[in-house]
Design brief:
Oligomer: single chain
Number of domains: 3
Shape: globular
Number of strands: 19
Number of helices: 22
Radius of gyration: 25 Å
């Protein structure tokens, strides 16, 4: 039985888990952890970031593509707290990672150790992590660490995935004990969560009785590797498929049954079909507020009278927001396999719905025409840039985007064809995600094109991580949609309050009111990126070609119009944004 320190136990266990990267920043509170990786650099790589939030976003982006968790390591105090934004983002979107933070020495807890949170409870940082992780542990003795490690990975990766947290006090990191390193496979359940056969048969009864079924595909499809099953199922019952933001890419958007998206930020075709459906078959989706147009009847769904068949791995989601005709607790792949088998026993072939198919095609064509009408000839709009980008990229290229107009318009207008091709911060809608998450995605898929797309405000939040991409020669292409402000919020304010009432959304010199614009091209050059500025629609294709051909991190500053006619997406759903009483009507305003 080897004698190992806490840091060595962590390093050896991660090697057995085949974790390829540890991401973080060393500090006085985690030195006993980082030093243990020095003699193991040939078996596991330490990736140094510039901010701990970004460490979590890198791990998040990696998991969304590879479906393998990375480990984030930070010091005690501020370094640990800095991870919270990235961890919360992963938690809401159900993405696994293991976060390891330092802690006060066990024999000095509560005495005001440097950077200790101790007024309400000694060494109380885990309380910050509890609402944003599946489980949190504080290891009080080095011999306990091996057991906690295998439990942490099991919790993170099974059931509904998510981040977990382990606090390792400074003395536990450095103390040694005679321990066995657990074999991960011996502590992990094998198999999938299977559906109840009776529930499957009841679901098939409801499906075959419907005239206008629609499938709502969520992130659970991608997480379960169920895209092939979804395609077979949709074709068997002749039902259109709409995806949530987290499910984008689960179904190829050039397929004749793709109805793209529904909800507050949905498409013309998606909302038309979902509001007129007599049955919604939700698989791996949670009917969140954005997907459901703030639950306004008839905005995106008409439930009731429409019925719901709901498949989810988390029983808490079934029936939470809409009454359910049949609820099935199972992972998406096993449920789709069971549904396909049940349909095969009862059908001689695919359900014919020629009129329904024609309707899907008609409304998709309307939507595509509406998009192309937003491509002005004399300036770059976000919409026209995305059209050029989609034509340029490979079919399996990965796009990474944070909150704002780029996120909404990419969701609405930029077709995704394969699982994992569309990466965004969904339910938590964080900013600062794009740069680090794109690094994680590229590490997970070095052979695929990866494009990080961010507004200028979003890009400034984690711009320091360009250094990580350059230092490690990670050839992500970043496009900064520069319009000098929080323009998505400006446009919301204009719609809600009036054209003359935008507040604190434009980047201006406050003494003169003149527009203030960061020169991102120069910043990219200063970091060591291939860097260009694009000001004309005719420059886009050649600039993209040069960026990818450079073989290194690239930054394309895209000067997009601020004109409200061209600056945002199109609204075909509803978002409940209450209007202040002093402005008049108290009715919610559609987003």
């Amino acid at each position: 039985m080897p004698r190992l320190t806490g840091g060595e136990i962590l390093a050896e266990y991660l090697i057995r888990e085949k974790v390829p990267y540890v991401v973080g920043i060393p500090g006085h509170g985690d030195m006993g952890l980082f030093d243990a990786f020095k003699e193991r650099e040939d078996r596991i790589r330490v990736l140094q970031v510039r901010h701990e939030q970004s460490a979590a976003h890198i791990a998040d982006g990696y998991y969304r593509v590879a479906r393998q968790p990375l480990v984030v390591i930070t010091s005690i105090g501020p370094g640990a707290v800095n991870t919270a934004m990235g961890v919360a983002t992963a938690y809401v979107d159900s993405m696994a990672m293991v976060v390891v933070t330092g802690g006060a020495q066990t024999y000095m807890k509560g005495r005001g150790v440097l950077q200790e949170l101790e007024r309400a409870h000694e060494d109380d940082f885990p309380s910050i992590m509890r609402p944003i992780t599946k489980e949190s542990w504080s290891v009080e003795h080095v011999s306990h660490l091996p057991e906690v490690l295998h439990r942490a990975f099991k919790v993170a990766t099974t059931g509904r995935p998510g981040p977990v947290h382990i606090q390792i006090p400074m003395d536990v990191q450095s103390e040694a004990a005679d321990v066995e390193i657990p074999e991960p496979a011996e502590h992990r359940p094998f198999g999938r969560i299977m559906p109840d056969p009776e529930a499957v048969e009841r679901a098939v009864d409801v499906i075959l009785a419907s005239r206008r079924p629609i499938i709502l595909a969520g992130g659970g499809i991608i997480g379960a590797g169920a895209s092939d099953g979804l395609l077979r199922f949709a074709e068997a019952i002749g039902a259109p498929v709409v995806t949530t933001m987290m499910g984008k890419g689960a179904f190829p958007e050039d397929h004749h049954l793709s109805a793209e998206h529904t909800g507050a930020n949905g498409t013309l075709v998606g909302n038309h079909l979902s509001r007129n459906a007599d049955l919604v078959i939700a698989i791996g989706a949670r009917f969140a507020e954005q997907t459901s147009s703030s639950f306004v009847p008839g905005a995106s769904f008409s439930i009731p009278p429409g019925k719901v068949v709901h498949v989810d791995i988390d029983a808490r989601e079934i029936g939470k927001n809409y009454p359910t005709e049949v609820g099935i607790v199972a992972d998406a792949r096993s449920a789709l396999d069971a549904l396909d088998a049940a349909l095969a026993r009862r059908l001689a072939g695919p359900v014919p719905r020629p009129e329904y198919l024609a309707e899907i095609a008609e409304w998709k064509a309307k939507w595509r025409r509406a998009i192309e009408e937003r491509w002005p000839d004399d300036r770059i709009s976000t919409s026209s840039f995305f059209g050029s980008l989609r034509r340029f990229l490979d079919r399996d290229a990965i796009t990474v985007v944070s909150a704002g107009h780029p996120q909404i318009q990419l969701f609405q207008e930029f077709p995704a064809y394969v699982p994992g091709a569309s990466i965004t911060t969904g339910g938590y809608s964080s900013m600062g995600f794009t740069i680090p998450a794109a690094i994680g995605a590229k590490l997970a898929a070095p052979g695929r094109q990866v494009v990080g797309i961010a507004g200028d405000g979003d890009f400034l939040m984690t711009i320091q991580e360009l250094a990580v991409a350059v230092e490690n020669r990670i050839p992500v292409v970043y496009t900064v949609m520069n319009n000098s402000g929080w323009v998505s919020i400006r446009d919301f304010q204009r719609g809600m309050f009036g054209e003359d009432r935008p507040m604190a959304v434009d980047f201006v010199h406050h003494d003169s009111g003149d527009q203030y614009t960061v020169d991102f091209q120069k910043i990219g050059e200063a970091f060591g990126c291939h860097s260009e500025r694009i000001t004309d629609p005719g420059e886009v294709d050649e600039a993209l070609g040069r960026a990818f051909a450079s073989g290194r991190p690239a930054l394309l500053e895209v000067m997009v119009t601020r004109d409200p006619r061209w600056s945002g997406g199109m609204n075909h759903g509803h978002w409940d944004l209450p209007k202040p009483a002093y402005l008049g009507a108290g009715e919610p305003v559609a987003g």
